[in-house]
Design a protein that fits this description.
The protein is of the alpha/beta class and 411 residues long. 33% of the residues lie in helices and 19% in strands. The strands form three sheets. It has a seven-stranded parallel beta sheet with strand order 8-7-6-9-10-11-12, with helices on both faces. Strands 2-1-3-4-5 form a five-stranded parallel beta sheet. Strands 14-15-13-16 form a four-stranded antiparallel beta sheet, sandwiched between helices. Helix 1 packs antiparallel against helix 14 and helix 4 packs across helix 7. It is elongated.
């Protein structure tokens, strides 16, 4: 397979026709798509043998993925609509755009927080149910407002589960509103920790956050470990009358447990971005139609970010923000480059080096990084790499994919 891909790339470059084909499976912001140079990229919704797939919410887990695909780009943060494990076995990186929609989600979370504090939704429902022809309309408005008295946010405690890009922005804004913030994230990165306001109290467990918070907001990825993270037991730990906000992923909460907690008045309200049959028409639920990243700015940011990442990978083999690959960035120091995705096993570099040495190739420079069971190697070489060498590299036990990336010749 690797030699056929190399042949196709070489033919495209020689004929000056688009070298890469990008299949789009959703409406992608033109701000991002315009970053694909037309002389090198063919981009469209109906392309055969694509080199990469670019999508937003399209469910790739139910779609056959062509063997020609070398990379997948998700113009957003979550990748649960992509078969990441299968792509890893094929040596295909899956890119996303972490943080590109963070401000949009943050603003919606703060909107929900304010609406919950001031009982805006039940108050609106009350007003909408009034008869405009009723002579006692004004009196009913004055009488009704008593049941919707809210609270102010200063000195209230906001609990945040997940302190990445979005959680950090929410924490910063909540602190500026005068709130106390307590957070928990066992997987927090060094970069995220540096960005976090110093006044955020770091909790030692999920339960500690739930126990002390008037409002709790979720900013976690959906993983096996986080599915139904908020269940009946954890809802029982929360303050009576607390509010839960979920603008992360629907299955992080157990919806049946949410409904039961609302009915039992253990939970005051549940604000989320995920309407479902179980939640519709529940008076304590405010479910929005997936508005978290639905701003023109967020769509532009996500598209630009992931397009740039796809280009750098296809043209130079650079890995940045791939959920299943290590980050690898090596400036080109020679005209010929090979990228190798492989299982993270011993003696892989030795086998790659010896294979190239037997072919009489001089390795100019090399970099290898690993992430869990996956490893990725970039090799810059001073002379052309023929199909036989690519085939030999692909035949090494544990090698998942091989790509030759000669530097584009001048037109």
């Amino acid at each position: 397979m690797a030699d056929r891909v190399a042949d196709r790339v070489a033919d495209r470059m020689a004929d000056r026709i688009p070298q890469f084909r990008i299949l789009t499976l959703n409406q992608i912001s033109p701000q991002g798509l315009h970053r694909f140079p037309s002389e090198r990229y063919a981009v469209g919704k109906s392309l055969d043998d694509p080199d990469a797939i670019l999508l937003r919410s399209h469910d790739l887990t139910r779609t056959p993925i062509p063997s020609s695909v070398r990379a997948i780009g998700r113009a957003g943060a979550g990748t649960n609509n992509i078969p990441v494990a299968e792509m890893s076995r094929r040596g295909v990186p899956v890119f996303n755009a972490p943080g590109a929609n963070a401000n949009a989600v943050k603003e919606l979370v703060l909107t929900a927080l304010l609406m919950a504090a001031r009982n805006v939704v039940p108050a609106l429902r009350y007003v909408q149910a009034l008869d405009p022809a009723d002579a006692a309309l004004e009196a009913k408005v004055e009488e009704g407002k008593k049941q919707f008295a809210g609270l102010e946010l200063p000195h209230r405690t906001l609990g945040i589960l997940g302190l990445g890009a979005i959680g950090g922005l929410v924490a910063d804004t909540a602190i500026k509103l005068g709130m106390k913030v307590i957070g928990f994230d066992p997987e927090i990165t060094v970069e995220a920790a540096w960005r976090l306001p110093a006044t955020v109290r770091k909790a030692n467990s999920i339960e500690e956050v739930l126990k002390h918070s008037d409002f709790v907001t979720l900013h976690l990825p959906l993983l096996p470990a986080t599915r139904h993270l908020i269940d009946d037991t954890r809802l029982g730990v929360m303050k009576s009358g607390a509010v839960l906000l979920n603008f992360a992923r629907d299955a992080i909460v157990d919806e049946a447990a949410i409904v039961a907690a609302l009915h039992g008045r253990r939970l005051k309200a549940y604000f989320c971005d995920f309407p479902s049959a179980a939640l519709l028409r529940e008076p304590g639920v405010v479910a929005l139609p997936h508005l978290g990243a639905s701003t023109s700015e967020a769509e532009d940011n996500c598209a630009v970010m992931v397009v740039d990442q796809l280009r750098r990978y296809l043209e130079d083999g650079t890995i940045e923000n791939a959920v299943n690959f290590p980050s690898v960035d090596m400036p080109r120091e020679a005209p010929y480059r090979v990228g190798i995705a492989n299982a993270n096993v011993p003696n892989m570099l030795g086998q790659i080096s010896s294979t190239m040495a037997k072919a009489g190739l001089n390795i100019h420079t090399m970099i290898n990084k690993s992430k869990g069971e996956m490893a990725y190697t970039l090799v810059d070489i001073d002379s052309p790499v023929d199909d036989g060498v690519i085939a030999s590299l692909a035949g090494i036990a544990g090698v998942l994919s091989v790509r030759s990336m000669p530097k584009e010749r001048d037109a």
